[in-house]
Automatic annotation (TrEMBL):
Keyword Ligase: no
Catalytic reactions on record: cytidine(2498) in 23S rRNA + S-adenosyl-L-methionine = 2'-O-methylcytidine(2498) in 23S rRNA + S-adenosyl-L-homocysteine + H(+)
Subcellular location per the Swiss-Prot or TrEMBL entry: Cytoplasm
Domain Ribosomal RNA large subunit methyltransferase M THUMP-like: 84-170
Domain RlmM ferredoxin-like: 1-71
Species whose genome carries this gene: Chelonobacter oris
Coiled coil: none
Record's keyword terms, sorted: Cytoplasm, Methyltransferase, rRNA processing, S-adenosyl-L-methionine, Transferase
Lineage top rank: taxon: Bacteria
GO BP terms, alphabetized: methylation; rRNA processing
PANTHER family on file: RIBOSOMAL RNA LARGE SUBUNIT METHYLTRANSFERASE M, RIBOSOMAL RNA METHYLTRANSFERASE FTSJ DOMAIN-CONTAINING PROTEIN
The protein's name: Ribosomal RNA large subunit methyltransferase M
Lineage: Bacteria, Pseudomonadati, Pseudomonadota, Gammaproteobacteria, Pasteurellales
GO CC annotations on file: cytoplasm
Domain Ribosomal RNA methyltransferase FtsJ: 192-287
């Protein structure tokens, strides 16, 4: 198994290919990315056997922007016999088990790429899962009780009902969702669908424990470009008080909570009210990515907030390069000010032509000026 299969939103295969090639190169692992436009996945083929496994363990999945999932796969199985697709699949796992210990498997996901054509296979995949799971269990797979995230998940990626990739991911370094997509339910009382974007961002970047610690009724936030209020809704739902900055109309239901101050001002000029400690800044204004990055940097450097989640609208061309350069500049500028930080960025399922970024200031080492 010397290939990685990475899932993405359709149309972002080139960005993902550039990203995985760079990250693999950073680890001294070389190969080439096979890209089929609008396929919803990329195959990165390593030159050396077993190196795909190293990548799946050593590239922190959280650091990949355009990947929804990362799995190690073998060569594409084609012409699977319709009356016995199971045998060749299990044979793949058995063949690789000695090196890889796939008996540590906890879960089976029979998946497709996230394209309309591939989704037509979903019913087939669902039905196929049950007999495949039974057979795998009989052969000693899928019986492992995980401790501390040290198990693996088995993935079958079907391209057609007679061809698939057979693979696995590490449970401590993958997206913990079927097809890499978190299923979120739209709250009927939320003012806009973009509410799901912030909900997914919080789920992805913070996790339950950090969310409870840093998003609660002791915390104040600013939402730049807030109207009609889908993001503010998520913050208020977690008990926070929100300054909602936007010339537009905010949902009356949010104002009725008494947890929102609507500020009809320019988000690029707004500053936190005097003597008010703001913890969180969120921003969903649609603007040039470099301009939004500079604004976020300003807030963090002035200590107007400690933490931020914001969107970067992707340009038409050189999207990966633009994102890299914005995030690099942000990091460099914070370092120059002695601000240690954690940056995470992801092309979320609910994002379209944008990515979502999370920045947390972890500590401040400011040099005292002389005199
Ligand atoms: C994509 S919408 C935000 C949607 C919002 N996050 C929600 O969930 O409902 C972008 C908003 O940014 C606002 N906006 C754009 N430029 C702005 C600026 N310079 N200052 C304040 N708001 C701005 C627009 O009025 C618009 O309401």
């Amino acid at each position: 198994m010397n290939k990685l299969a990475l899932y993405c939103r359709i149309g972002f295969e080139k960005e993902l290919a550039a990203e995985i090639s760079e990250k693999a190169g950073d680890l001294g692992i070389y190969g080439f990315a096979r890209v089929a436009e609008n396929s919803g996945y990329v195959i990165f083929e390593c030159y050396q056997e077993n190196e795909a496994d190293r990548l799946a363990q050593e590239i922190p999945f959280q650091q990949l922007i355009f990947a929804r999932q990362m799995i190690v796969v073998s060569d594409l199985l084609t012409a699977l016999p319709p009356d016995d697709r199971i045998r060749p699949i299990i044979a793949q796992y058995q063949q690789h088990n000695d090196n890889l210990n796939l008996k540590l498997s906890t879960e089976l996901w029979v998946e497709t790429a996230d394209t309309n054509e591939a989704k037509a296979l979903s019913t087939f995949c669902r039905k196929f899962t049950v007999p495949l799971r039974q057979q795998l269990k009989k052969c000693g797979f899928l019986n492992f009780r995980e401790v501390n995230g040290n198990g693996v998940t088995l993935h079958i990626l079907f391209l057609a009902n007679d061809s698939c990739y057979v693979g696995y991911s590490y449970n401590n370094n993958h997206a913990p969702h079927f097809m890499g997509i978190p299923r979120l339910k739209f709250p009927s009382d939320a003012p806009s669908r973009s509410t799901l974007k912030l909900e997914e961002a919080i789920l992805t970047f913070l996790g339950e424990k950090e969310e409870k610690q840093r998003m609660n009724d002791q915390v104040k936030a600013v939402d730049l470009g807030a109207c009609p209020g889908g993001w503010t809704y998520q913050l208020v739902k977690r008990g926070m008080f929100v300054y909602a900055v936007d010339h537009g109309k905010i949902a009356p239901s949010l104002m009725e909570t008494g947890r929102v101050d609507h500020c009809p001002e320019d988000g690029f000029k707004f500053q936190p009210p005097k003597r008010t400690k703001i913890d969180w800044l969120v921003c969903d204004m649609v603007e040039q990515p470099a301009r939004i990055t500079a604004l976020m940097t300003k807030w963090l450097i002035h200590a107007w907030c400690k933490e931020t989640i914001f969107n970067l609208k992707l340009p038409m061309k050189k999207r990966y390069q633009e994102v890299r350069s914005c995030l690099q500049k942000l990091s460099d500028d914070l370092n120059k000010q002695g601000l240690t930080h954690r940056i995470q960025a992801k092309h979320l399922f609910h994002d379209r032509e944008e990515i979502t970024v999370h920045v947390l200031i972890t500590s401040v080492y400011r040099q005292k000026s002389e005199g």
